[in-house]
Amino acid sequence: MIDLLPLASEQSHGLAPYRNYLPRGHYRLMPGVRPLFGNGDEAMFLLNLRDIRCDARHPVLRMCEEVEKACWNPQADFYQYLSQRDWLLYTTVGGRISGFMVCSLDRSDDVGFLSFEECMNHPDFRGAGIGSRLAWAAFFAAGRMFGEIDGVRKYAIATLTVNPLVMDGFRRLDRMFGNTIYRPSAALLDLAHKYIRRHKLQPLQQSCPWFIREAFPGSVKQASAYPHLGVHRHLPQGFDFLTRGDAMLYVATINRRLAVTLAGLRLAKTYGLSIWRPQFAEATPQILQPALMPL
After folding, report:
1. Residues paired with 212 in a beta bridge
2. For residue 64, what pLDDT is reported?
3. What is the pLDDT of residue 133?
4. pLDDT of residue 79
5. Which residues contact 153 (CB under 8 A, 6 or more apart)?
6. Distances, alpha carbon 3 to alpha carbons 41, 99, 111, 285, in Å
7. At 85, phi and psi to the nearest 5?
8. Confidence (pLDDT) at 25
9. Could you give phi then psi for residue 108, rounded to 5 degrees?
10. What is residue 47's predicted lDDT score, i.e. its pLDDT?
11. Coil/strand/helix, residue 137
């Protein structure tokens, strides 16, 4: 597990009592926690979920739960779900959480594995590219962290999504990756099957691990929110994300240095070149631990 950005003055695992968190300044929701990136209007934060107590008393987690409920119909207990993950990235605009992303970090032999578990962008802030920046920030941060861990030489990502907009986004970005679900290697297929076994998923077709049956049943709120996209041509017959909650499992590998560079350039468009400066390292304390959880 990754030890990153604990709450200031709190002991590991959230054993210390809660403080009375209040908004500070333009985008500070919690005193003592600095943003990874910021531009004066929007800021990006990262919390280590393994180092805090995941319940409704935590102000950031409570606000993220409100964002989730505004986006879809949750089928699982939000706080129990978070307690089984590693990172929560979130953006704030004017002291209000505009979106968040939940991630897990694992390893399989010499592969560092970043899993995008959930990304929610509040309806009031859609169209501003926040979801995309959350993904690039996780990509950037995990890539830099894996570079500091002995034995991790390769970089892979995975996401299980019921949202056709996200499916289409990964299809359009597919060329930047090495092996992907559209041109899988034997090693990538092995990673996908490990992911499916760990999360106890049911493929739509046993011969194809990329499409999962009933991954998020009853979660999609509005069919009108998902117009016809080119990605539909790439979905198998019988795929039903609207009523049954079928999802696409996107897995890809990429050179770690290339991943960090590409993500950094994307983030610099919003947050400036400060993302490359020392404050990134200052805001993300050393995360070296004996091992990540094996995939």
Report:
1. 203, 247
2. 93
3. 92
4. 94
5. 110, 111, 256
6. 28, 22, 19, 8
7. -115, 180
8. 32
9. -135, 105
10. 84
11. helix
Q: What is the pLDDT of residue 5?
A: 31
Q: φ and ψ at 57, to 5 degrees?
A: -75, -15
Phi, psi dihedrals of residue 68, rounded to the nearest 5° = -60, -45
Phi, psi of 44 (to 5 degrees): -115, 125
Structure tokens at 248: 């696409």
Strand pairing of 111-121 and 154-161? parallel
For residue 236, is it left (φ>0), alpha (ψ between -120 and 50) or beta?
Answer: beta
Question: What letter does residue 288 receive in the DSSP assignment?
Answer: -
d(CA 8, CA 23): 15
Distance between CA atoms of 109 and 291, rounded to whole angstroms? 11
- DSSP per-residue codes, 142-162: HHHHHTTSTT--EEEEEEEE-
With a cut of 70, list the residues of the chain below it in pLDDT: 1-34, 219-234, 277-295
DSSP per-residue string spanning 168-233: HHHHHTGGGSSSBTTB--HHHHHHHHHHHHHHT--EEETTEEEEETTSSTT----GGGS---GGGG
How high is the pLDDT of residue 71?
86
User: Amino acid letter at 200?
Assistant: K
CA distances 162 to 18, 83, 90, 177, Å, are 35, 22, 20, 21
Between strands 203-205 and 154-161, the pairing is unpaired
Residue 205, both tokens:
């077709």
Taking CA atoms, 211 is separated from 107, 193, 202, 233, 248, in Å, by: 22, 12, 9, 14, 5
